[in-house]
Amino acid sequence: MQRTLLFLFLFACHLVNGQDIKVSGTIQNATNNSPIANASIVIKDKVTGTVSDAEGRFSLPVMKIKPPFILVISSVNFSPLEVTVDDAAMPLSITLHPRPWMLNEVVTTATRLPENLLRSPVTIEKMNLRAVRENPSLTFYDGLQSLKGMEAVTSSLTYKQVNTRGFNSTGNSRFLQLLDGVDNQTPGLNFAVGNQFGSSDIDMESAELIPGAASALYGPMAFNGVLSLRTKDPFQYQGLTVQAKTGINHIGEEEVGTHGLYDLSLRYAKAFNNRFAFKVNAAYLSGLDWYANDYTDISAQTPPANRGPSNPGRDALNIYGDEVSRTLPGIGLVSRTGYEEKDLMNYDVYSLKLNGALHYRITNNLEAIYQYNFGKGTASYTGSSRFDLNNFVLQTHRLELRGSNFFLRSYAVSENSHDSYNTRSLAQFINRTWVKDLNGNAVTPDQADAAWFNRYAAAYEGSVSGVAGQSHAAARTFADQGRFLPGTAAYEQAKDASIHNYGLSGAGVFSNSKFYHTEGQYDFSRSVKYFELMAGGSFRYYDMFTNGSLFDDKDKAVTIKEYGAFVQAGKKLLEDRLKLTASLRYDKNENFDGSFTPRFSAVYTAAKAHSFRASYQTGFRNPTPVDQYIHLNVGPITILGGAPNNSKSMNVYENSFTASSVGAFGQAFGAAMGGGATFPDAINNNKDLLKQSDVAYIKPEKQKAFEVGYKGLFENTLLVDINFYYATYRDFILNTVVIQPEHSVTGGDGSINFDAAADIINGDVHAYQLYTNAADKVSSKGLSAGVTYMMPKGYTLGGNLTWSSFDLRDANPNNVPAFNTPKYSTNMSFGNTNAYRNFGFNLAWHWQDAFDWYGTFNGMRPGRISSYSLVDLQFNKKLPSLKSMIKVGGSNILNNKVSQAYGSPSIGAIYYVSITFDELLK
C-alpha cells in the first residue's frame, strides 16, 4: 500500500510539474476589443485543447508538439479561425469577428461526426450551453419540451419522459437517451427515467435530439429517436461552480398547501498542465411530489350514466384496491373500498446525483477517461399501475480511449430497486390483511376478498342484526369493519410488510439487474482520399436478476447477448454543394435473426446558408428483457416472455388452443349437453370449433421512414427549418392468450384430439399470456416547422409548430401500440441574454391540443388529455465581478393544472429563485 501511494504521489507531481512548452495569448472581439470568455482553443486534428477565461486569456501546454502547428479557435456568435503557430514562446493576440450562432453551431449526433447544423442530413435539434443557462424551466431537462417535435410526459416531480414522432408512453423503450455516450436506461425497466439519474444543470454542456428512426447508427433502442446529453469537459470548464435553487409548488392546492422544494448542486474541475484533469459533481433535489387525485369512476362494468361516487361498483382512477369487484346475485356489481394514492405513495421525492471523472491525455491524440455516476432517488412512475421507485439506485462506470478520429468505450450499468413497489398491488394486499368473517374471526389473505363480499351481501340483504338492509352505504360500512385506516400503526405495519415482500405475495419490486456495453468507432477519412468512411461496432450483455419475482431466475441466470456493426460512407459532389451519405448497420440478438438497417441521405447546399435534405431511414427495436424472459405465474394464468429458450420443454407455443376458440367450444359443449347429448358425443360434435394457436416467438419491431427538409438562414438574422416525414411500422410487440391442455392438441391425422378437448371440460388446462408480434401494418406522417429571428440589440424570437397524424389503415387496434400524440403542438420563445446592464430574460410558451390517451394503467381504454398551455419565464442578473448570476423564474407560471398522461398527476406551477457562482478557484 505504501509503495502504491508513493507511486501515485510521484505520478501526480510529474503531472503538475511537467515542463511542456505552453502556447498562451488573449482572444478579443474584433468589433470592440472586448475579451471573449469560454472560447475554445484546440490543436487541429488533436484532442489537446483549452478554453479562455473571463479576461479572454488562455494557456495551452502543447506536450512536445514542434511548431509549426495550427490552433482552431471558435466561440458562439463568432466566425471560427485557424491560426498557425511558428513560435510557441510568442504570446498570441487573436481577434474573432462576430457571426450569427446559427452559422457556427456544430452537431455530432446526426452522423456521429462533427458537422455544421445547417448541413445535417437529417432533422436535428440542439440545446447549447447558453440555452441551458438561460432556460426558464426549473431544470434544463424540463426545458427540452420547447425543442421542435419533442413530446414530454410528467409522471413525477423527479421524472419526466421524452419522446418524438408518436407511440408515446410513460416508460418509453423505443427512445434512446445517452449521457456522455452511455445508455442511460435502467436494466430492469429498459428505459431512461428522465434525468433522475442524469446530470445537473451546472455540468450540462449541450443536448442534441434526432427525432425519428436512428437505428442505422445507434442500434435497437433508437426506434423513435435519440437524445444525446453531453457534460462539460474538465479540461475546458475548470473551477468551482455552486448553484443554490429554492422554490415552491402546490400553489392554491387546498388538499396539500404550498410546499417548498430545494435544489443544490456543486461542481469542481481542475486540469494540470493540460495532461491530467478531473471533475466532481454533487447535486441534490428534494420536494413534495405532485398528487394524482383524479377520482373519476372508470368502472368498465358499469354503464357511463351510472358511474360516480355513489356507484357501489366504483373504480376510481387514482384510488387503488377498488378494482377488485364482484357481481353479487340480486345486488349487482360491488367493489371493495380502496385507498387513495396519497396514502400509498411516498410523495417525499428526491434526486441525489454524484459524479466523478478522471481524464488523462496520454499523447496529443490519445485521451483516457474514467467516469463514475451514482444516482439515487424517489419518483412516481405511471405504468400498468402507479409505481413508487423508492430509493432506487442506478450506477454507471465508463472507461474510454478517445482520439481525434476514434473512440473505444466500455461501460457497465447496474440498478438496485431497493424499496420500490406497486401501489395498486399494495392497496389490494393491505385490504386482505384485516377482513373478518360473519362470525368475527379473522380470515387468511387468500379468503379475504370472498369474506368481505359475503359480509356485504349479508348486510345488504338484511341478514345482519342492527344493519339496515337494502342500503349500499350501510352494507359497505359493515363489510369495512376493522379496515386499517391510513396513518394508524396497523396500516403502516401492513404497508411496510407488503412493500418488502416481493413477487406474487407482496407489492415489492425487486431487481438487481445490470448490463455491460462495449463499442468503438473509427473515422478512416484521413486515410481515404476520395470519400469519407467511418465504421464501428458494439456488444452488449444483459445480466438480469429478480430472484424469481419476475423471471425464472431464482436458481438460474437470465442473460442476453447482442452485438452490432455499422459502416458509413459519404461523398461530396458538385463543388461540395451536394453530399451523399449511406449507412448500413447489422445487429444480432442471440434470440432473434439478425437485422440490417440502412440509411441513405442527400444534402444539397443551394447557397452558403440554404440546404435541402432528403433521407430514407430505418429503425428496429429488440424486445426488452421483460418481453423475452418474464415468467410469472399469477394463478389462473402465466405470463410468459417470447424468447424461445424461456419456454423450452413447455411446448406452449406449439401445443395450445386460441382462447376465443376455447370459449366457443365451451358454449357449444354446454348447449349440446343441455340438449341431451352424451359427454363423448358433445365433445366429438363440437371439438372442431377448437383452433390450434399459431403463435410465433417474439421478434424485433420494424420501421421505414422517408424525410425531406429545408434549413436556411436569411440575412444572417432569420433561421428557417422545415421537415416532413412519412413512416410505416410492422411487427409490433403484443400479448395473446392461449390455453394449453395436458394432451396433444391434434391427433395423428391432424384433427383435433378428443383427449385435448376433454381436458378443457375437465379443467386440465392452463392459460398463458404469450409475447409475440402482430402482422398488422400502420403508418404515420408529420410536419414540423421552426423559425428563429435574431432581432436588433440581442433580442431573439423563436417558434415552432408540429403536426402529427396516425393512420391505422386496416390494422386491428388491439395489435398496435397507442400513438398517444397530439395532432398539433407549438412552442414560442422570446428573450435577451443582456437586455440592459447584464439583466436578461427568457419567456417560453408551449401549447398542444387535446387527444385520447391509451395505456395499460386504464386497461387500454381511452382517457382524455385536454388541450393545455404552459408558460415558463425567468429574469436574471449577471454579476461579472462576483462571477455569479441570480435567476428568478417559474415553470407553468399561470398555474394551469395539467395532466400529460391519463392517470398521472396534474402538474401546477413552480416558482423559484437561484444563484449560481461560476469559475471560482480557477
UniProtKB/TrEMBL annotation:
Subcellular location: Cell outer membrane
Domain annotation TonB-dependent receptor-like beta-barrel: ranges: 438-883
TM region(s), chain numbering: none
Membrane topology recorded in Swiss-Prot or TrEMBL: Multi-pass membrane protein
One Pfam family here: CarbopepD_reg_2
UniProt key word Signal: yes
Membrane in keyword set: yes
One GO cellular component term: cell outer membrane
Domain TonB-dependent receptor plug stretches: 119-226
Domain of life: Bacteria
Gene3D superfamilies on file: TonB-dependent receptor, beta-barrel domain, TonB-dependent receptor, plug domain
Protein keywords: Cell outer membrane, Membrane, Receptor, Signal, TonB box, Transmembrane, Transmembrane beta strand, Transport
UniProt-listed GO biological process terms: siderophore transmembrane transport
InterPro entries: Beta-barrel_TonB (IPR000531), Beta-barrel_TonB_sf (IPR036942), CarboxyPept-like_regulatory (IPR008969), Plug_dom (IPR012910), Plug_dom_sf (IPR037066), TonB-dep_rcpt-like (IPR039426)
GO molecular function: siderophore uptake transmembrane transporter activity
Family the UniProt entry places it in: Belongs to the TonB-dependent receptor family.
Name of protein: TonB-dependent receptor
Record organism: Flavihumibacter solisilvae
Lineage: Bacteria, Pseudomonadati, Bacteroidota, Chitinophagia, Chitinophagales
